[in-house]
Design brief:
The protein has eight helices and no strands. By secondary structure, it is mostly helical. 36% of the residues are buried.
Length: 184
């Protein structure tokens, strides 16, 4: 009987090790320092940032979508311009002599991991502030603020959208967030 429990313990440990290896392969983690810095700067959970990066680009800093979104967090150049305007206006304030708010007030290379992560995280914070709900903010990150405002009508948050791809995107990010929760 003792041998059986020993075998069972070894078997469970082996399965757990294989599972952990699969998770680390399926959910890679790069740019941890940049993610943590952006998370601290903008008060966004680091695991959420990592989940967005995995879902958007699978940690490829030079990824470009068919629609023209660039980098780790797939920022549209027009969104980067919009972010620059937000950064320089209330309630986010202006910028200091050093560039303030992560030093990205004047724009930057969206294929640069640090730049892209700070832009994407700033935009996530903006959407979280605007919509007050993580899932609704993710819908807006994927489909755009204008569409989400129209879908909301008078509601405070959304559980689903008319777009299957947007719904699947939010679920992918939230699932990935759970895998990254204890790694960033």
């Amino acid at each position: 009987m003792r041998a059986f429990f020993l075998f069972a313990a070894v078997f469970v440990a082996a399965v757990a090790a294989v599972y952990a290896g699969v998770v680390f392969i399926a959910f890679p983690l790069k740019y941890k320092a940049e993610i943590q810095a952006a998370a601290a700067e903008y008060n966004v959970p680091a695991a959420l940032i990592a989940g967005v990066i995995r879902s958007e680009s699978r940690f490829n800093p030079t990824a470009v979508s068919d629609k023209g979104a660039v980098g780790l967090m797939q920022i549209m150049p027009s969104t980067a311009e919009y972010i620059n305007k937000i950064i320089n206006s209330p309630p986010y304030g202006g910028v200091d002599a050093e560039g303030g708010r992560g030093g990205f007030a004047g724009g930057g290379d969206l294929t640069d991991p640090r730049t892209n992560i700070f832009y994407g995280t700033f935009y996530l914070r903006y959407l979280l502030d605007k919509f007050g709900d993580e899932k609704t903010a993710l819908f807006a990150y994927n489909a755009g603020e204008t569409k989400v405002r129209a879908w909301l009508g008078g509601a405070e948050r959304l559980e689903t959208t008319p777009y299957r791809e947007t719904n699947a995107y939010a679920e992918r990010v939230l699932n990935a967030k759970n895998y990254y929760r204890y790694r960033v």
